[in-house]
Amino acid sequence: MKGKDITKEDISASKAQIEETLKAQKMGDSEEESDEDTNVPIFTAELARLKDKEASRVQDESDEDMEVNNDQYPSECSDSEEDKDDFTIRKSDSLIVAATAEDDYSNLEVYIYDHKTSDLYVHHEIILGALPLCLEWLSEWQGQKTNHIIVGTFLPEIEIWNLDSENCEPAAILGSLEKSEDIKNKKIVRNFGEEETHTEAVMCLSLNPIQKEYLASGSEDSTVRVWDLEDLQCKATFTNLHKDKVQAVRWNSVSDNTLLTAGYDSRINIMDVRD
To answer: Given 140, 149, 171, 255, which residue has the most CB atoms within 10 angstroms?
Structure first.
């Protein structure tokens, strides 16, 4: 069979048809690529904001990815919550206080004992102005249950610290360093019935177990004092019990008016503070 002659018009028509077919195929590929780009998962909030189309779906995916990132890399908020939880003193926790001294630095270390996990760690520290010599726990004060510690140091003052606070100042002070210096320098006549302070280091403390507003203290100045913690005043001073440093004072656990004292003069006294 003899074929038909191909003219220039046929070649032009075939060329135009091929170009149209390639153009259509290229457009189809471009649409598929666009669909694939649309379906690409969004992993960050920044990419989500770049997508103008399907904003609601993109926002949902962005929120989910933000949650995943928070699980892998905790945010500052979650970290601070964990720190806050570690810092919190719970009712089930036990407090242990230790007085420490190293070189010229003295402080109270407040330990937390967690009964559930049996963990013991230092919760915070309280810096003292002088070397500590004695401690006494104060669980009730001014009609409320508290976590206070009474501290006697080489100073003539007695400090009361709030263990639930990191305040750099004591909650109360018994006695006066300034007045004790005036007494020692004879600027004030030494009358134990009027002054309300020790003049030397406070070596021992004892809180009355029955009338818990009364505190007994013994000092290097050889005196024993009874303090009222409600009005923070000295109620009684005993000057004739010892001739040397007072090393120990202890209230009787049954008789609330009976006090035992012991000193460096090798004397032990059992007395009724009402006499």
So the answer is: 149
The distance of Cα 32 from the centroid of its chain, to the nearest Å, equals 60
Fold of 131-272: Methylamine Dehydrogenase; Chain H (2.130.10)
Cβ atoms of 171 and 160 within 8 Å: the answer is yes
Tell me how far apart the alpha carbons of residues 261 and 17 are, in angstroms, rounded to a whole number: 119
Beta-sheet pairing, 158-162 with 144-153: antiparallel
Phi, psi of 193 (to 5 degrees): -80, -15
pTM > 0.90: yes or no: no
Q: What is the pLDDT of residues 237-273, one digit of tens each?
A: 999 999 999 999 999 999 999 999 999 999 999 999 9
State how far the Cα of 263 lies from the Cα of 162, in Å rounded to an integer. 30
Residues 219-227: contacts with CB under 8 Å, at least 24 apart: 219/156, 219/245, 219/246, 220/245, 220/246, 221/156, 222/246, 222/263, 223/192, 223/198, 224/249, 224/259, 224/261, 225/198, 226/259, 226/273, 227/158, 227/174
